[in-house]
UniProtKB/TrEMBL annotation, chain A:
It comes from the Bacteria. Monomer. Interacts with PqqE. NCBIfam families: PQQ_PqqD. Gene3D superfamilies: Coenzyme PQQ synthesis protein D (PqqD). GO terms for biological process: pyrroloquinoline quinone biosynthetic process. Keywords: PQQ biosynthesis. This is Coenzyme PQQ synthesis protein D. The lineage of its organism: Bacteria, Pseudomonadati, Pseudomonadota, Alphaproteobacteria, Acetobacterales. InterPro entries: PQQD, PqqD_bac, PqqD_sf. The keyword tRNA-binding does not apply.
From TrEMBL, chain B:
Transmembrane segments: none annotated. The gene is pqqE. It comes from Acetobacter orleanensis. CDD domains: Radical_SAM (cd01335), SPASM_PqqE (cd21119). Keywords: 4Fe-4S, Iron, Iron-sulfur, Metal-binding, Oxidoreductase, PQQ biosynthesis, S-adenosyl-L-methionine. This is PqqA peptide cyclase.
């Protein structure tokens, strides 16, 4: 399975202007900074978002995470595509 | 300034930096205190820079540059640049009337993350009457155009009251037309200037419900394209709001002269000492000052709050509203239906005159 509700592994995600991932050294947690709110990025979201640079495709991000966590690629695909959809809905990520 | 034995407070999330109380507009619901700080007492650039350093080190994530009109400060872009260099998320809260291509370019190049632009109405003539500034509406429309053209994310802010509530659908349309990414439909909160003008501003229940319906319809229409933040007028709420997420829990406010406050309106509470960044570090004020520890947590609460199942949710409501309506900042927020002074809220609603009285505009000459 390589697509979910229109998202495919070929899509290249980038942060919408005015949003970014930020490591909070005081709380020792990752946050997504967005207009008028900062919300906690859970462990899965933080791993994915650290690889979002406007150049890597979702497929490449999935490959990197599969290698890093020695996990079945199918599982990573699910995590990445559903998280990407959620963050696109929240106006955090844009997909090219 | 120490409170021994108190558990360490959580790090604050956001800082509202009121750079100045000067503003070309004179909105009768302004969140500034009735006693406005004069220009001569404003903090200088170097002090604000040091405050920003301290804020970032404490764990503050977002800084909201506000006022008055923060664009009246010539050092705004320098402060934004410094905040950005510290990793702070920078938000500008502006009326837009001083914004032009040059001033916007300086802010954008400094790394500003987001702009919240206020409109007083969707209708130009009414908006200018409410804000008390002729020619403001066209300047705001041009400001929105420039912001969207630059690519900066834009939030439109509308403060709602009985004299503009019927045009909430037009406000939502305007946000869409102008390319805003977010829109705030925020009913007036009744402190300071808003309280002074309450009879001229408080909507009736039918007006409130019409605004709720308009927002629900727009949410369906906008989907994920435009987020809507709706702030209810708490006089009509069942339970009080957890004001500022709790006193000294997430938020702090710095006034133009450097006083550090748990909320915009805290200076209305008599008998308190407001510590200043000119005398203490921001962290020591947040952790140790008597002011920030006064209503922190739940130990200070009276009944019926103390034995209430919701005390961690609403944190006893708003201290400034308790003072304004019950005459005592230690009381249960009278918005709560269980509060001894709840009748004051019902009275304000039932005694509201049919014809709104004239505005008492927010200006230095009307300041107390």
């Amino acid at each position: 399975m390589t697509s979910l509700a229109g998202i495919t592994e070929g899509n290249v995600p980038r942060f919408v202007r005015g949003t970014r991932l930020q490591y909070d050294r005081v709380r020792e947690q990752w946050f997504v900074q967005a207009p008028e709110r900062a919300f906690l990025a859970d462990a899965v979201a933080a791993e994915i978002l650290q690889l979002v640079n406007g150049k890597h495709s979702l497929g490449q991000i999935i490959d990197q995470l599969t290698e890093k966590f020695s996990a079945p690629r199918d599982v990573i695909v699910q995590d990445v595509l559903s998280m990407t959809q959620e963050l696109a809905d929240k106006q955090v990520l844009l997909l090219a | 300034m120490t409170t021994s034995g108190a558990p360490k407070a959580p790090a604050p999330m956001s800082l509202l930096a009121e750079l100045t109380h000067r503003c070309p507009l004179q909105c009768p619901y302004c969140s500034n205190p009735l006693q406005l700080d004069p220009r001569a007492g404003e903090l200088d650039t170097q002090t604000w820079m040091r405050v920003l350093d301290e804020a970032a080190a404490m764990g503050i994530l977002q800084i909201h540059f506000s006022g008055g009109e923060p664009m009246a400060r010539p050092d705004l872009a320098d402060l934004v640049r410094h905040a950005v260099s510290l990793g702070l998320y920078t938000n500008l809260i502006t009326s837009g009337v001083l914004l032009n291509a040059d001033t916007l370019k300086r802010l954008s190049e400094a790394g500003l993350d987001h702009i919240q632009l206020s409109f007083q109405d969707a209708d130009a003539q009414e908006g200018e009457r409410i804000g008390g500034m002729a020619g403001a509406h066209a300047k705001k429309l041009e400001a929105a155009r420039l912001i969207v053209e630059d690519g900066l994310p834009l939030t439109l802010n509308f403060v709602i009251h009985r004299q503009n509530a019927e045009r909430v659908p037009a406000m939502l349309d305007l946000a869409e037309q102008l390319g805003a990414r977010r829109v705030e439909i925020a009913h007036t909160q009744y402190y300071g200037w808003g309280l002074l003008n309450r009879d001229a501003l408080l909507p009736d229940r039918a007006q409130l419900e019409a605004t709720e319906k308009a927002v629900a319809e727009a949410r369906t229409r906008f989907g994920n394209r435009i987020a809507i933040d709706f702030v209810t007028p708490d006089y009509y709420a069942e339970r009080p709001k957890p004001c500022m997420g709790g006193w000294g829990q997430r938020f702090l406010n710095i006034s133009p002269s450097g006083k550090v406050l748990p909320c915009h309106a805290a200076e209305s509470i008599p008998g308190l000492t407001f510590p200043s960044v000119t005398e203490h570090s921001l962290d020591s004020i947040w952790q140790d000052s008597p002011l920030f520890n006064l209503y922190r947590g739940t130990d200070w609460m009276p009944e019926p709050c103390q034995s209430c199942a919701f005390k961690e949710d609403d944190r006893g409501g708003c201290r400034c509203q308790a003072l304004a309506l019950a005459g005592n900042a230690d009381a249960t927020d009278p918005v709560c239906h269980r509060a001894p002074a709840h009748e004051r809220v019902e009275q304000a609603i039932t005694e509201r005159p049919i014809t709104p009285p004239a505005f008492q505009y927010r200006r230095y000459s009307n300041a107390v």
